Amino acid sequence: MQFALNLPLARFLPAPDPGAVIDRLATAFEQAGIDAALMSEHPAPSAEWIRTDPAAHHSLDPLMALGMVAARSKRLRVFTNILVLPYRNPLLLAKMAGTLQILSDGRLMLGVGTGYMKEEFEALGVDPRERGALTDEAIETLREAWSGEPVVRKGRHFNAVGNDMRPVPATPPPIWVGGGSDKALERAAKLGDGWAPYFTVPTNDPVVRRSAVVSMEHFAQKVEQLHAMRADLGRGGGFDLSVAPPFRPKVADRPSAEQFREEVEQLRAHGVTWIWTSLPATSVEQYADIVAWFGEEIVAPLRTGWVAA
């Protein structure tokens, strides 16, 4: 079992010394035994969403920000959770993500999804009705671009006619497909190296609510479906399951740690390999403190044989 935490840099930056902020938090993550720092993205969110939705947040560009995190840490992996594939030309993304994978010495985990915010699609000039097809096309194109062979592929909005994408990573980053819908599950089974769904979160967005996993029982059913689909497709080998437990700690206390650990044990029983979550963040030092608590009260016990009562 490995652990990832949200790195809420957009809450703390701009700052007079952004490097010092990243150094402080990356050090806190590594000292707490956290395996990966994750960031989501919203390049052009609706102002109304920011103002009214409980799940709203600003973000930095995850690939650029995580590149700096990787440069200023020693072993911390970096995880896009989730990068919206339809927003980008897949060949350009292959170059950007491949560069990060090379420069970080193989520490990138590429969580990807279709996106959901209509206003953001419109601002970026992308038809949201195409988002599923664009996502599938992008995953296939990323893999072809990282093969080291010239890319020959005509996409919906690009035409590769034997383009050489080298240098490419020695080991391409794993692609984890986000979302809990049936379509996302099929995409993960067919095209992904892992599945990264989410449990129901407080949000006003109907698309997000429809895509969420709603209970442990629902999650177990989805995992069973996923394994059956992969078997039908003849896909074996390693496959990661990454998910945040339904409970999100709001305070650093014993009841919170106990509830979180119990849910992690339930997820472990369903084959989950990566646990991630977000923690409350009001200042850099406060966040470093709660990360330390998370490491001491959750990560360490789960790695040393703690068993739920």
Number of strands: 10
CATH class: Alpha Beta
Low-confidence stretches: none
Instruction: Choose one word for the global shape.
Output: globular
Classify the secondary structure makeup into a structural class. alpha/beta
Notes on the protein architecture:
- This protein has 309 residues and is an alpha/beta fold.
- 39% of the residues are buried.
- A hairpin with a 4-residue loop joins strand 5 and strand 6.
- It has one domain (2-303): Luciferase-like domain (TIM Barrel), CATH 3.20.20.30.
- 45% of the residues lie in helices and 15% in strands.
- It contains twelve helices and ten strands.
- The strands form two sheets. Strands 1-2-3-4-7-8-9-10 form an eight-stranded parallel barrel. A two-stranded antiparallel ribbon has the order 5-6.
- It has helices at residues 9-12, 18-31, 47-52, 62-71, 90-103, 118-123, 131-145, 182-191, 206-211, 216-232, 254-269, 284-303, and strands at residues 2-6, 36-39, 77-84, 108-113, 151-154, 159-163, 175-178, 194-196, 240-243, 274-277.
